[in-house]
Amino acid sequence: MIKNLEEIARQCRADILTMTTVAASGHPGGSMSSIDLLVSLYSFANIFPNDPWNEKRDRIVVSHGHISPAVYSTLAAYGFVNRDEVIAGFRHPSSIFEGHITRGIPGVEWTTGNLGQGLSAGIGMAIAGKLKKENYHVFVVMSDGESAKGQVAEARRTARKFNLDNLTVIIDYNDIQISGRASNIMYVDLREEYQAADWNVIEIDGHDFEQIISALKIAKNDKKPTVIIAHTIIGKGVSFMEDTPKYHGKPLSLDEYEKAISELGLSVDIEKYIKMREKLDIREHKQLKLKYEINIDTGNPKIYREKTDNRTALGNAIADLAQLNNNVVAIDCDLKSSVKLDILDKIKPEKLIEIGVQEHNAAALAGALSAEGFVTFFADFGVFGIDETFNQHRLNAINNTNLKVVVTHCGVDVGEDGKTHHALNYISAPLAWFGFKVIVPADPNQTDKVVRYVASQYGNYVVAMGRSKVSSITKPDGSLFFDENYEFKYGKIDVIRDGEDIVIITLGSVLPHALKAVDELAKEGINVGLLNVSCPFDLDEEALSRYARNKVIVVEDHNVYNGLGTLIESKLFNLKILPDMFIKVGIDRFPVSGNSKYLFNIYGLDSEKIKETIKSMI
Amino acid sequence: MIKNLEEIARQCRADILTMTTVAASGHPGGSMSSIDLLVSLYSFANIFPNDPWNEKRDRIVVSHGHISPAVYSTLAAYGFVNRDEVIAGFRHPSSIFEGHITRGIPGVEWTTGNLGQGLSAGIGMAIAGKLKKENYHVFVVMSDGESAKGQVAEARRTARKFNLDNLTVIIDYNDIQISGRASNIMYVDLREEYQAADWNVIEIDGHDFEQIISALKIAKNDKKPTVIIAHTIIGKGVSFMEDTPKYHGKPLSLDEYEKAISELGLSVDIEKYIKMREKLDIREHKQLKLKYEINIDTGNPKIYREKTDNRTALGNAIADLAQLNNNVVAIDCDLKSSVKLDILDKIKPEKLIEIGVQEHNAAALAGALSAEGFVTFFADFGVFGIDETFNQHRLNAINNTNLKVVVTHCGVDVGEDGKTHHALNYISAPLAWFGFKVIVPADPNQTDKVVRYVASQYGNYVVAMGRSKVSSITKPDGSLFFDENYEFKYGKIDVIRDGEDIVIITLGSVLPHALKAVDELAKEGINVGLLNVSCPFDLDEEALSRYARNKVIVVEDHNVYNGLGTLIESKLFNLKILPDMFIKVGIDRFPVSGNSKYLFNIYGLDSEKIKETIKSMI
């Protein structure tokens, strides 16, 4: 068996060099140091090319996604993918074999590339295994350089907390990163740090197959999360590449390539691949998007008549969904009672996953958990669930997860906690996460419907809300607007009050204030229309074309430079509609700390200020 | 002395309770557990109310900014601030005593509140002390809950790497956080983790003044970074508050308050403060903005005639500035040769601060370093320097730092590294960081001018550029557009080619492609105007009013939903200008991996595709 692995690895080394030289791009150095580990791991793990997505398969996450040549060549060697397609297509736009490994390629569980996130994803998969009572094992392969990322420290502790004996980390410790020796750039005492989080630590020679296989056996069978620190040599296998930082991200020239291949004792017809590549069309390949069927009982809507915060409606709806469905989970970052996951905690504590003040790790593992079949609510304050985890959610979006980012404490509605806590980017930031949709419900009744809706749809959603208790939105006759018969339709604009001469467009926690203003102005004989835009990314053109022609004011508890107002401007501009007057009210600077009642007044969001603005428009 | 500290702490405990009860908001629990530490520390440290910003002062960073009542009461006790103003104004919009402590209040070095960032800021200050050869000491007070943040692990290693014996961390280990016991929520083995990073560890009773002072003495004088783990009791000093999570973020009712004050053996006229508060105006207080004079020799511009990447111009300009000025530093995250800081490294290695793959910590410490008088370049790939560090830069902006975020590898110009590495938010994300300005230079000559310009201005800037080599932009006569006589003026739109019927508006790495298209179209008799918008946040209304009336195409290597095109739409909408035709070209989905030449073609950014689009507009 060992002999066989050696032979496979030798062939893979050649493939690594061939594909990077053919592409004139890529990372051969780290690929050569990792290859013996990968060849061993894919041989050892319970995953097979004829059924690569079998639910019971072992999961392999390669966190340092830039060693894609090593991963692809291993997958080709074991029959997961076609070897010629890999070598000719590597890093070509028409090929699925991108620069960084991509989820959806058989044998690739997670798209990585932004370092330090892979272990969190693996932990999500390991927690999913425990929840599903599946016996699969999760292997995470990492580099030493990325071990410096703080998110890795967060992930380590999480593995201990949940006693993830179904998790093994393998570190390719080649001690070289882009700028030099890893130990000089930023020394990480790997053994000490993993032991501080109570992991088993095994150190091996990462080029000795017997040691690798034996370590994998121990790691798979012990009762703790285990890290295998594999001492390796960058560029291993080709004399002039060994232990040189130069080949981290630089392919060999043709001359160097010939020399290297002959050192490996192989011969490759590289011209064949160069010609195959030249024939490839310059076009975008189809994106690989794994998803699953959603079967969710969304239960019955809960109706709120008393003044309630949207958070409570959120917490109730999540608890209800978790009660009705076995595949609903929620992630908390030490804000249980504030984001109202305490309601879930009381009835289904096993479905509340508490990660503490470790938002990066929490967001990434939430994404992976959602990809494993769980409708996953990641609950947090807006500022942590959006701003702090911006890049983690971007990677979730890339991975086409099924995540519901439910953020409370958005806007100056946060109040006294002040500018560090005023989340003002809950509309704008998700625009960067292609595929994410944003919904900002206005009152507890709409919140309830929205939470049940997003649970029933595959895909990534942000549901954003404020902190304060709000009155339920009512129709002119005083009955509930979002009542038993209301059905949430994504993208629909709610016409709360009819009126076309002056129209207020708003969303979220401003709506109750705007409604108060409109109803009071009506008593003064001033008729003002009121639109609620709960879905700022997909604006209802028909409603806007009708209502946004004359005098328009957009009011939002959001950054005024990139929120609802800007999206409406853009939409109207493209519809070639220039209203007679268009005023945007929102937050244009870091706000101060204070009671949200005061802040709504100061920043022009309360009914008094809205009335003043309306009157100034007449 | 100890007796005195005890007495001060007793008074501070009363003040903590008074201000939170008067405000009906705030965090009394952790304030009570931290107060003995703070009272000791401000007494021990070399900082005095009569000259609180003395360059030689010890720096005290309180990372868990929500214990502001403890900080404010301590500052009042030692005469840094007025006690009545604190108690009556706490968390009121007209008061500088915000919910989270704010840089600029005498004795407060850093605005905190987003947990886990304070140690990085302290490290920035400690590195600044070493660079300035000042003997001050930096004390960072933290909570146990926030110790779970990965950024703290990054910071710890950084302290070891730079041998920061001028740094001491004090952890308020009360073992309570919002959702319960810290050790249950996410256990952090503090001693083991700090020892794994080779820190001195001292454990004390955080309510025993002798132990506190003695630990501070040891920590200040030893030759390593030291952590003092102070075991404390939340709510300490009031029987019914002790060791109860409930009072983490909840003030006492008036009844509870009376009981607590009497337990403390004090009497307070709380009515006086309630009345004082009632008289406060409901208005925004003036923001506290510390800054310093910039005296920078910006040197002589370097002229590039050959095809060069903007990164090289960046690296050369930074090296030149560091050669000419002692107060210029650059931060690298293991991308030295890619972001061209290797040029600086060769001539001034002591000014290149290498933090490794620890971007969160790097961004936060860079901000603090810039606040300490260093013109600080934080160099990184766009995806790490913008997306990954979104919330760190937001906190830098809040702290009014003088940071130059210089990001390379923006856009699909990154090429083969693919979607995880395509930074598409370098314009949109900084809109969230109020006060930040964005500049996207087009060629190496403009890059050189821009880098020298931002160094000469106090404030936060993003300078964003691509990866590829680009031709220098030329005038119609073939001479350099950004030549020796060109002066960069922030906000000015460069009219590269005149023409008003069809106008291309672009920036950055697309400009050379657009220029090629325009010059080739001219040969076909099609006259197209070309504008370069290097400052997308501050659009030149005059130029837009003149050139953007007829047929307009905006092309950008950026997310098309929130980039230059959207900002121009918003500007034209507000100028009430509806061009006859307006086309936006940019990236509307996660791109594939491939040579940037191919990607520019696929996504409509190269000269061929631009020409096609123009022709379709005629």
UniProtKB/TrEMBL annotation, chains A, B:
EC id? 2.2.1.1
Any one GO cellular component localisation term in the record: cytoplasm
GO MF, one term, reads:
metal ion binding
What's the cofactor? Mn(2+); Mg(2+); thiamine diphosphate
User: What keywords were assigned to this record?
Assistant: Magnesium, Metal-binding, Thiamine pyrophosphate, Transferase
UniProt keyword Transferase present: yes
Q: Cross-referenced Pfam families, in alphabetical order? A: Transket_pyr, Transketolase_C, Transketolase_N
In this chain the Transketolase-like pyrimidine-binding domain maps to: 308-472
Could you tell me the Gene Ontology terms of the biological process aspect for this record?
Answer: glyceraldehyde-3-phosphate metabolic process
EC class of this enzyme? Answer: transferase
> According to its UniProt record, which protein family does this protein belong to?
Belongs to the transketolase family.
Subunit and interaction comment: Homodimer.
Task: Report the protein name in the record.
Answer: Transketolase
Native organism is Thermosipho melanesiensis (strain DSM 12029 / CIP 104789 / BI429)
